[in-house]
């Protein structure tokens, strides 16, 4: 048995859960929505990452009354006014990442400035307060798809300081420099210095 506090990760993504579970192992007993038998779609209807992360965490906190956190991420392209941003998952109207990348490359074709960043926001709701943690990785958008690693927009994003896309780079490199890694570090640091 463990006497670590229980913390819910409001995600249905098992890969994200496993990643965070390892990082948080010493501080909290991380439980998933599956373990809580929660399979409903969680609403994500705001127009910011912060708003969506809050909405997801609040839905689960209200339902189960346990400290809870959630994440929301997106790709923000400067020349496109921050698009696809909060709509990254369904930019072309659906979750097909090849269609999403094709639309983005098309929309960016006439622009010189190809700078962009990935951003992740974590929202943590405890019994006392609500906290936000964020991570950003800057980079540029390529003109064509390169590499097959990762998911989403990885084949068209070159992180700053590298020549290869996230689709080409070794997975361990992405894991150490990504927006999600940076936001996770902030969350872990907070959990290490406070009680839930
Ligand atoms: P989520 O909030 O982590 O589910 O991310 C929303 C969407 O942003 C994903 O469906 C992807 O299209 C995009 N995205 C987020 N993180 C990444 C990443 O690390 N690589 C590529 N695309 C990402």
List the helices and strands and how they pair.
Layout: E1 6-9, H1 14-24, E2 29-31, H2 49-64, E3 68-77, E4 84-85, H3 97-108, E5 115-125, E6 130-141, E7 157-159, H4 171-177, H5 179-192
Could you characterize what this model shows?
The mean pLDDT is 94. The protein is 31% helix and 23% strand. It is α/β, with parallel strands linked by helices. The chain is globular, with a radius of gyration of 17 Å. The protein has helices spanning 14-24, 49-64, 97-108, 171-177, 179-192; strands spanning 6-9, 29-31, 68-77, 84-85, 115-125, 130-141, 157-159. Strands 1, 2, 3, 4, 5, 6 and 7 form a seven-stranded mixed beta sheet that branches. The protein has a single domain, classed as Maf protein (Alpha-Beta Complex), CATH 3.90.950.10. The longest helix has 16 residues, at 49-64. The protein contains five helices and seven strands.
Q: What's this entry about, in short?
A:
The protein is of the alpha/beta class and 196 residues long.
